[in-house]
TrEMBL record:
Protein name: Amino acid/amide ABC transporter membrane protein 2 (HAAT family) /amino acid/amide ABC transporter ATP-binding protein 1 (HAAT family)
Keywords: ATP-binding, Cell membrane, Membrane, Nucleotide-binding, Transmembrane, Transmembrane helix, Transport
InterPro entries: AAA+_ATPase, ABC_AA/LPS_Transport, ABC_transp_permease, ABC_transporter-like_ATP-bd, BCA_ABC_TP_C, LivM-like, P-loop_NTPase
Residue stretches spanning the membrane: 33-51, 58-77, 83-101, 108-125, 145-170, 204-222, 242-266, 287-308
């Protein structure tokens, strides 16, 4: 923790000392870097980490600036009230826009952000009372406990403080349960929902945080400049903010600062040099930035900070004392043999194709049930029906006595069903520990604010201790801090099982858990599943490895053409003439 504070203290030191040693013009440049960094920090969270590209952040900067400009110049109110008003308006606007646009997928979302970015820009220019495109002048100084924040030196301190605080809050957030959820948004929202994470809520939260940071920057900008007009809040500026994070490091907080610094300084140099080459020309530097961004995207897609980091010593992962962490509460296990998941008469059609018809099965507590059948028999479809990814056209599914067909994967996960995936879905750059802790998401409660202030230490320690326990249980204890993506596929499958176990499930749904495992690993997996069965867990697995299935399962359901062909003990299945004829001809 102390190590993580050193860069923040260095930042504060720069902000405090720069005015003493640098000429005023350079301090002003530093101030702009700080202001842009605030917006870029939000964009890193939103776009780089959350995967939601926004061209419209400059509009939120405008809301922060205009709110304070209007209240201070036209109503004589304090800039601090202006700040509160700006943040409140931003909260309302961002929540409304977020609810409207964040459901848009693919390129529709960036187009949506362009639309409201443009709309807000023209609103600033045309709304009565905002001074048109000429803007508002003579904003007052900010005053804090008798300190008049007026010159660039004073602003350097204020901006430095707010930037360091924002970095600290976001760093805390990203290393919390809430932050792990945010890190799934870009590529693994489906997996996250299956772990009980409300991804729509996380997306909206990230959107609002990014907007609030932009509004804070706008407030500082307005009182530093003491005039506001719409130009700095245009979509062009929104694109420049995106350039900053692309240059600096799209997915890292310090990359936002690096990008803001690079863009500001290079722009300054170019604005001095280019007019001498081209004669008088507006915004010629943007041509240079266009080329630069393309080169960075080509040769350093993660931005320049990761390149810098690769030559610097690696930073140590944040550690919490886990030894004294309280144990998480556990569900009580149903009696062995009690039916857990019962499906009857399931029908699933994809257009004219019937993938499941009159399909049913029962999975009992403390038993391993295997679902087998040739490729295309409809096993994955059934799995998706049971886990809530798909809704059946007809039929019913009960879990632990409750009807669940039509419930979302998240709701089903909350009831005590956890799953792994046929194609492993881990966050490759995140450690094994963090990946597995995702499984425990629904067992924590800490909200966004507590996470940002790192007041959830006790709960976080309990979650990480649970994840550690599950990783050790599956035999991967030596890989706690290894990036999950660097493990061989077989071990990644085991990490997925640890993640599923972390949710304290009553029923485990395992999609081809033995695929890609070596013989010894399969034996270890079979032992683990036997142990889980002994503890009262129900297990349903889809598996093609007949030796594995026959040695482990208590009960086997065979599917053919979307329908049940046979069900029984491994011995009964091996002796069933229809099954032998159709599938298991080679198995003794
Ligand atoms: N989303 C979908 N849209 C259209 N057809 C689908 C969809 N999902 C599955 N199908 C079709 O439903 C049938 C059953 O597929 P399913 O993936 O459930 O079989 P499976 O037994 O799991 O096969 P495998 O062992 O190869 O994974 C297939 O013909 C498949 O093409």
């Amino acid at each position: 923790m102390a190590l993580r504070l050193i860069p923040l203290l260095a930042l504060l030191l720069v902000a405090g000392l720069a005015p003493l040693v640098l000429p005023a013009f350079h301090v002003t440049l530093l101030n702009y870097i700080g202001l842009y960094s605030l917006v870029a920090l939000g964009l890193v969270l939103l776009t780089g980490i959350g995967g939601m590209t926004s061209f419209g952040q400059a509009a939120f900067v405008g809301i922060g600036a205009y709110a304070s400009a209007v209240l201070t110049t036209q109503y004589g109110l304090s800039p601090w009230l202006g700040l509160l008003a700006g943040l409140a308006i931003t909260l309302v606007v961002a929540t409304s826009l977020g609810l409207l646009t964040l459901r848009l997928a693919g390129h529709y979302l960036p187009i949506g952000t362009l639309a409201w970015g443009l709309a807000l820009f023209y609103l600033f220019g045309n709304l009565p009372g905002l001074g048109g495109f000429g803007g508002l002048q003579n904003l007052p100084n900010i005053e804090l406990l008798g300190w008049q924040i007026s010159g660039s030196a004073d602003f350097a301190v204020l901006i430095g403080l707010l930037l360091a605080a924002s970095l600290w809050l976001l760093d805390n957030l990203l290393h919390s349960r809430q932050g792990r959820a945010i890190r799934t948004l870009k590529e693994s929202a489906g997996m996250a929902e299956a772990m009980g994470i409300d991804t729509a809520r996380s997306r909206l939260q990230v959107f609002i945080i990014a907007a609030l940071l932009a509004a804070l920057s706008g407030w500082l900008y307005a009182h530093l400049q003491r005039v506001v007009n719409p130009t700095p809040f245009s979509v062009v500026m929104g694109i420049e903010y995106l350039f900053m994070i692309v240059l600096g490091g799209v997915a890292s907080l310090w990359g936002a600062l690096l990008g803001a610094a690079l863009l500001t300084l290079i722009k300054q140099v170019l604005q001095d040099v280019l007019p001498q080459l081209f004669g008088h020309a507006d915004n010629v530097e943007m041509i240079f930035f266009g080329v630069l961004v393309i080169l960075v995207l080509q040769y350093a897609r993660g931005g320049l900070l990761p390149v810098l980091r690769s030559v610097l010593p690696a930073s140590r992962p944040r550690t919490l004392a886990l030894d004294d962490a309280p144990a998480l509460p556990r569900r009580s296990m149903p009696a062995a043999g009690k039916p857990l998941m019962v499906a009857q008469g399931l029908l699933k059609q994809f257009g004219g194709l019937v993938a499941n018809k009159n399909m049913g099965l029962s999975v009992n507590a403390a038993e391993v049930t295997a679902l087998i059948g040739p490729n295309g028999a409809g096993k994955s479809t059934l799995f998706n029906l049971l886990s809530g990814v798909l809704t059946p056209n007809a039929g019913q599914i009960t879990f632990n006595g409750q009807r669940i067909e039509g419930l979302s994967p998240r709701a089903i996960a909350h009831l005590g069903v956890s799953r792994t995936f046929q194609h492993v879905r881990l966050l490759g750059e995140m450690s094994v520990l963090e990946n597995v802790a995702l499984g425990a998401h629904a067992r924590g409660k800490a909200g966004l604010l507590r996470s940002m202030l790192h007041l959830e230490r006790k709960e976080e320690a309990a979650l990480l201790a649970e994840a550690t326990r599950q990783i050790q249980r599956v035999g991967l204890g030596e890989y706690l801090h290894t990036p999950a993506g660097s493990l061989p596929l077989g071990q990644q499958r085991i990490v997925e099982i640890a993640r599923a176990l972390c949710s304290d499930p009553l029923l485990l749904l395992l999609d081809e858990p033995a695929a890609g495992l070596r013989h010894g690993e399969k034996q270890a997996l079979a032992q683990l599943l036997e142990q889980l069965r002994g503890e009262g867990l129900g297990v349903l697995l889809v598996e093609h490895d007949m030796e594995f299935v026959m040695g482990l399962a208590d009960h086997i359901v065979v599917m053919e053409f979307g329908q049940p062909l046979a069900s029984g003990t491994p011995l009964q299945i091996q002796q069933n003439p229809a099954v032998l004829a159709a599938y298991l001809g080679g198995v003794e």
